[in-house]
Every structure is written in C-alpha cells, then in structure tokens.
Amino acid sequence: MKLSARNVLKGKVVSVEKGSTTAHVKIEIASGQVVTSAITNDSVDALGLKVGGEAYAVIKSSDVIIAVD
C-alpha cells in the first residue's frame, strides 16, 4: 500500500457500529489509545472490517481514512 498521507497508524479493530448509512469504526493503535472514524457501511463491507481484525487509521487533514492490506 502506498499513500501520500504520512500519518498511518496500524491497529486492531475494537468496534464497528453500523447506522442506517454510516458506521463508526474504532481502532486501538496502542494500549488504551483508540482512533474513531465515520465511514460508509459499504466501505466497512468492502474492506471486510471485523472486530479483532487489523486495519490502518490514515490521517490526512481533518479526515480519518481506514485502510487494510
């Protein structure tokens, strides 16, 4: 994975809460340190995000983007 963003934080998905169109995904990047991102439910499904899985929080400007290998 190559990105222009410099803030890429690897962690473990600890929560995926789907709403009607938007999901809140929480990634623990270190013990007790959690990053939360709001993404579409379609993105959750496309990325295969599951609690316990590994993912990256990609931070650029004011947005947190989720990525997987």
Automatic annotation (TrEMBL):
Q: Where is the signal peptide?
A: none
One Pfam family of this protein, by short name? Answer: TOBE
Q: Which Gene3D superfamilies match?
A: 2.40.50.100
UniProt keywords, alphabetically: Molybdenum
User: Mop domain: which residues?
Assistant: 2-68
Q: What is this protein called?
A: Molybdenum-pterin-binding protein 2
Upper taxonomic lineage: Bacteria, Pseudomonadati, Pseudomonadota, Alphaproteobacteria, Hyphomicrobiales
